[in-house]
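lol ok so funny story. i was supposed to be doing the assay writeup but got distracted and ended up predicting the structure for this chain instead. priorities right. anyway since i did it might as well share w the group, maybe its usefull for someone
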Amino acid sequence: MKLSIFKSLDLSLILLPALLVGVGIATIYSTTLGTEQSYFAWQQGVFAFIGLVLMFVFSFYDYRNLRNVSWVFYVLCIVLLLAVLFVGKKVFGATRWLDFGIFQLQPSELLKIATILFVSSFFAQTVSRWYQRLIMAMVLVGAPLFLVAKQPDLGTTIVVVTIFLSLFFFWPISRKVKIGAVVVLLALLPLSWTLLQDYQRNRIYTFINPGRDPYGAGYNVIQSLIAVGSGGVTGRGLGNGPQSQLNFLPVAHTDFIFAGWAEATGFVGAMGLLLALAFLNWRIYRIASVAKDAYGRYLAIGFGAMISVQIAVNIGMNLGLAPVTGIPLPFVSHGGTALVVDFIMLGVMQSIYIRHRANL
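and the output, tada:
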């Protein structure tokens, strides 16, 4: 391996994720202290190490070769999603995990990376008979999304649709076609409402009016807002937040980890976390602008869209600005599959950046 390749690494894609993982592990440790889930922090550290190793592996692997194996990822996701329907583990009313004993795999997280890989491959090809290519891409995205909807997993559905739309709108086809697609999507919104489960509709009603069911559907959001507010300017300190430590704040290590961090570190810590996430996202989109080919550009756009929507929805639902959908905060929320997937995609971003810098 040439030394110049190592020098071409984007250090921000190493230091920022490491900082975010550190924030996540500290918050997970703080919010699970003294509970039966206290091992989650150590577990997250193990997955972070695995993710870092895979990140470096993919950093020095030529991302252009991924075009040839994107179908492998896609088929693997279909198989795993089908397995979830038959032998999946049910948690909080949703069947999303495959239990392998020493760890649990969430195939819907793998679908995010598979979507980025194979849709980018589709759109990076020469635009001829674009309508056939678009219909095929929609069918290929829709098939696994149907399986995800059966779990049900609204959060992953939102992320995958966002990835697809982001790639579509950067696709060099007629603007009229893109406007027409927006009109069709808006027309389909009433239909999507009828496909939602009752508890999902309740979450949207609660988003509109959190006080309508303060001890039921609105409880999580209300407790999250109390936790964020109780942090004040500088926070109460890790392990000292009443909302987190007294278990008023639900799933503070996953969906509401931002509220747990804000309670511990206050406005200062919350803003620092937001700035770190924003800078990481900017670096990803910056890589899209310097990619040497269309495929690399689409990969970075897709990953940037994936990170952007997860940050926006997760923090939004912690602040009562978005419905609760179970979307994790990238590199921060507890979850081994999501963390490893994020690190793999960072490795792909490094691969794109290295080949730009080293002119390979």
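The chain is about 70% helix and 5% strand. Residues 3-357 form one domain.
back to the writeup now i swear
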